[in-house]
Amino acid sequence: MPHELNWFLLSDYFGVVVFAISGALAAGKRAFDIFGVMVIAFVTALGGGTLRDLILGIHPVSWVRDPVYLWLVIGASLFTVLAGKISHRFDNRAMLISDAFGLSVFTVIGVQAALYHAHVPAPIAVIMGIMTGVAGGVIRDIICNDIPLILQKEIYATACGLGAIVYTVFDYFQVEQGISTVICMLCVLLIRLVAVISRWNLPAFRLQHRE
Amino acid sequence: MPHELNWFLLSDYFGVVVFAISGALAAGKRAFDIFGVMVIAFVTALGGGTLRDLILGIHPVSWVRDPVYLWLVIGASLFTVLAGKISHRFDNRAMLISDAFGLSVFTVIGVQAALYHAHVPAPIAVIMGIMTGVAGGVIRDIICNDIPLILQKEIYATACGLGAIVYTVFDYFQVEQGISTVICMLCVLLIRLVAVISRWNLPAFRLQHRE
Amino acid sequence: MPHELNWFLLSDYFGVVVFAISGALAAGKRAFDIFGVMVIAFVTALGGGTLRDLILGIHPVSWVRDPVYLWLVIGASLFTVLAGKISHRFDNRAMLISDAFGLSVFTVIGVQAALYHAHVPAPIAVIMGIMTGVAGGVIRDIICNDIPLILQKEIYATACGLGAIVYTVFDYFQVEQGISTVICMLCVLLIRLVAVISRWNLPAFRLQHRE
User: Fold this and answer.
1) CA distance linking residue A156 with residue A153, whole number of Å
2) CB within 8 A of B191, min separation 6: which ones?
3) Touching C: which chains, 3+ CB pairs < 8 A?
4) Domain residue spans of chain A
5) pLDDT tens digits, residue range A31-80?
6) Which of A130, C75, C150, C163 would be A160's cystine partner, CB 3.0–4.6 Å?
7) Closest by Cβ to A64, choosing from C55, C134, C148
8) Subunit contact C154:A70, Cβ cutoff 8 A
9) For residues C62 and C69, is the Cβ–Cβ distance under 8 A?
10) How many angstroms away from the CA of B35 is the closest CA of chain A?
11) Torsion angle, CA of A68/A69/A74/A78, rounded to 10 degrees?
12) Contacts of C145 in chain B (CB under 8 A)
């Protein structure tokens, strides 16, 4: 992931910020101090990419070679804590939406890193897209002892997977990278947001299925 | 792990399939969609080996270099979902038995990868055997928010460890590899199945010890 | 981490022993067999360092190249189980104190490995100090299905982080390594122990904040 690919890098930064916010919000529900909030934000924002880089053998891991990631996480954590003090509406819905944005960005980045930097076969690239998108949030939920979002929302991993498949198919037919990226992100984001919204309309239905 | 060692590779594939089934069954109890089932099956089947390859510095990780692993996981997931629709008896017992099979296969593979490919000392190879056998299931249980099997059944890790010790001792005395493999697998499998069966006979005893 | 740096190595061994005890105590509360106790002790003692070495690209991981770590974990596990049989007072308080000691040692080691062996920037070294100190205990708590200590005690990660920052600042001003190490360790240990003790005095306060 060279620094010339500015768009690639900027979208990575964007994903880190929104996932850090999502992590900080999850930590905020637990009344952590600011340092604990940063730890959870860090793990949420950089956990998926770290796992991807380790498995693809990309060394050093992104945030080790570029401290900007760390400052983004710290900044996003402070912003979330301050925003949470100002507005009590910065809550569960904000977390679900920022999580969906992060998911779409990280899915694309995971597929791109796998295809263009580690040169793995397309099916493995799809897995890397899902992993990059999902792993940070799963680690966040596991550490916070929450029921993982990936379990609560059935089409969480599905959104990632479909988006990643769309990207690799577009890549196979040599569609321009910018177009593939936007369509893949929209695909993940729309599926995920529709899932979240339709869930809001069906709370009673879910409760009946609770174990 | 070169492709010439067909037996080694085939037993690895077998372990992946049974652990994927075990993962899909665990996911099935949670009413995931098919994509979520595949994610849990994937993590269960390939989590232990991934951790082992990362720690031993074997790059690239097995399933990254060989997409067959991915197709096996997808196939096993589909099979499990279909079999689950046909027979409602494909349940907890099936999961415990397939888990025990996967455990025995992965323990051997972990020890062999450590001894013959990373050339680590025998005690470390035992650890790698346990890790390869246990880690996938532990990750599955953690993500599914279940109480890990490794905690519920006291002799889960013990079965792995004894099997791995048997293999390394046989290897030290230069017993033929095929014989070591079969005896190590039988060792893990028998200890584990006896434990599972004897547990079935002692439910009341366990309940008294519950915290 | 060459063998000439005896002090470095000895403090690493010390940290491994106290974290292994902390892991064995956590496992002991769950009535595991001796093998299960060793697995949890192993993960607690070596999980943080393993993660650090993987992310920093230090190969092979410490305990793979030096089986002494394994024997320390096994010895500490046996000691804990025996001591637990002799004295029923070897309990929660012992676990919290041994955890605090391990935390201080591992924080220093994490920062030193990052600064002197992987040559990463100072902010990343702070993260590595926190990760080395915290990760093993977090993995222990996650596997044991406990609420992570890092969540229960707000200034757990904070103690690590402040200690790590102190070390990197002292390192920047070229303070002698032994002095930096002792002050960093005291910093982590004192903050953590004060937090544990003050928590014991404020149970009612916490209960009001419980969700």
Assistant:
1) 6
2) B155, B158, B159, B162, B163
3) A, B
4) 6-198
5) 677 777 888 899 999 999 999 999 999 888 989 988 999 999 999 999 98
6) A130
7) C55
8) no
9) yes
10) 5
11) 100
12) 147-148, 151
Mean pLDDT per segment of 10 residues, for chain C of length 211 residues? Answer: 63 89 82 78 94 91 91 94 70 74 91 92 94 90 75 73 95 92 93 77 33 37
- Tokens encoding C176: 């002698």
Residue matched to tokens 């676990």: C95
Cα–Cα distance between A18 and C146 in angstroms, integer?
29
Q: What distance in Å separates the CA atoms of residue A63 and residue C45, rounded to the nearest whole number?
A: 25
Give the type of residue at C113.
A
Distance CA B73, CA B16 (A): 7
Integer Cα distance of C37 and C82 in angstroms: 12
Ranges of residues in chain A whose predicted pLDDT is under 70? 1-5, 31, 86-92, 147, 149-154, 199-211
Contact C145 B148 (CB under 8 A): yes
Taking a C-beta distance cutoff of 8 angstroms, is the pair B46, A128 a contact? no
Copy the structure tokens of residue B181: 């493999």
H, E, C per residue of chain C:
CCCCCHHHHHHHHHHHHHHHHHHHHHHHCCCCCHHHHHHHHHHHHHHHHHHHHHHHCCCCCHHHHCCHHHHHHHHHHHHHHHHHHHCCCCCHHHHHHHHHHHHHHHHHHHHHHHHHHCCCCHHHHHHHHHHHHHHHHHHHHHHCCCCCHHHHCCCHHHHHHHHHHHHHHHHHCCCCHHHHHHHHHHHHHHHHHHHHHHHHHCHHHHHHHCC
Contact between chains at A67 and C123 (C-beta distance less than 8 A): yes
Rounded to whole angstroms, the Cα distance separating A56 from C68 reads: 30
Any idea of the CA torsion for A12, A13, A15, A16, to the nearest 10 degrees?
Answer: 120
Tell me how long chain B is.
211
**B159-175 pLDDT per residue, tens:** 899 999 999 999 999 99
